[in-house]
Design a protein that fits this description.
single chain; alpha/beta; 14 helices
Length: 282
């Protein structure tokens, strides 16, 4: 079910008003709607039979019956199934966390669009790439910066907010500003991206699919969907998706750069080995 719901949520902003009403009702309570007839759904949503059928066909189904069958058969891991119990063994917890992470990656992959190609093209052409993130998002930004710097591409990934704003202020056309923010509402990250966009950089972000201030200043948005079991408000699995996306972009850059990438990484490796030897001798 969840993959289908992700597709609906992704297309929601572009749907005609009559179909959007159906989609919003479905997203709000998919379990209840899956048991309604076409006439009942039309009555519940205040729409017409024709609008519902058009919506179903837009989602890739022949009609309402096929759509309802798919909705009923595609069962997601429920909170009851995946809730962590006090008596769970570490092996049980491990399996649940792994399943949650795998579901996060699968759902995020279902949201992939040609935006990934645009992001890769911009990063390959970039004079420098600067990453912006706070908290645990900074950790994936830092790792991405370290990997990309081995390709000979300069940039930054600062944990300090002031340094991030300074980096944004010094960005030039031809550079890329890349932010990671799950909610897209981190004031410092939004401000840095606003500055970077004003300076003429290509702005890219990884965020969840919702309306947020960050999207106002982003040229290319890469969306994630998180299935998380963490107690409280922290969503650890979001970093799994962030890291996977950044790793994929790094691999894509390495492939596009070809022999140049190989040479840059070999040169970097040699420098690191020489430095290691010097430290041992010293």
């Amino acid at each position: 079910m969840k993959g289908l719901l992700m597709r609906i949520r992704f297309q929601l902003p572009s749907l005609p008003r009559a179909e959007r009403v159906v989609a919003e009702a479905l997203l709000e309570n998919p379990e209840a709607i899956s048991g309604l007839t076409l006439a009942q759904l039309a009555k519940e949503t205040g729409s017409s039979d024709a609008s519902i059928i058009r919506f179903c066909r837009r989602m890739g189904f022949k009609g309402y019956t096929d759509f309802k069958t798919a909705l009923g058969c595609r069962r997601d891991l429920s909170d009851e199934d995946e809730e962590k119990e006090n008596q769970d063994s570490m092996m049980v917890i491990l399996k649940k966390v792994f399943r949650g992470n795998m579901q996060t990656l699968t759902d995020t992959l279902s949201l992939a669009t040609t935006n990934y190609d645009e992001a890769l093209n911009a990063m390959v052409k970039a004079k420098s790439i600067h990453f912006f993130g706070v908290g645990d998002a900074y950790a994936v930004c830092r790792m991405a910066h370290m990997k990309i710097s081995r390709l000979g591409i300069s940039g930054s990934a600062y944990s300090d907010v002031t340094q991030q704003l300074v980096a944004a202020a010094n960005i030039k056309p031809g550079d890329v500003a890349f932010s990671v923010s799950y909610e897209g509402r981190s004031r410092n990250v939004v401000e840095a991206m606003k500055i970077a966009k004003e300076r003429g950089a290509v702005t890219i972000c990884i965020t969840k699919m919702n309306k947020s201030p960050l999207l106002h200043y982003v040229d290319i948005a890469l969306f994630i969907s998180v299935s998380d079991l963490t107690i409280g408000r922290e969503k650890v699995a979001r970093r799994v998706a962030d890291q996977a996306i950044l790793d994929a972009l790094f691999v894509g850059m390495s492939i596009r750069m070809g022999k140049e990438a190989v040479k840059k990484m070999q040169d970097t490796h040699k420098v690191m080995e020489i430095n290691k030897i010097k430290r041992k001798e010293g």
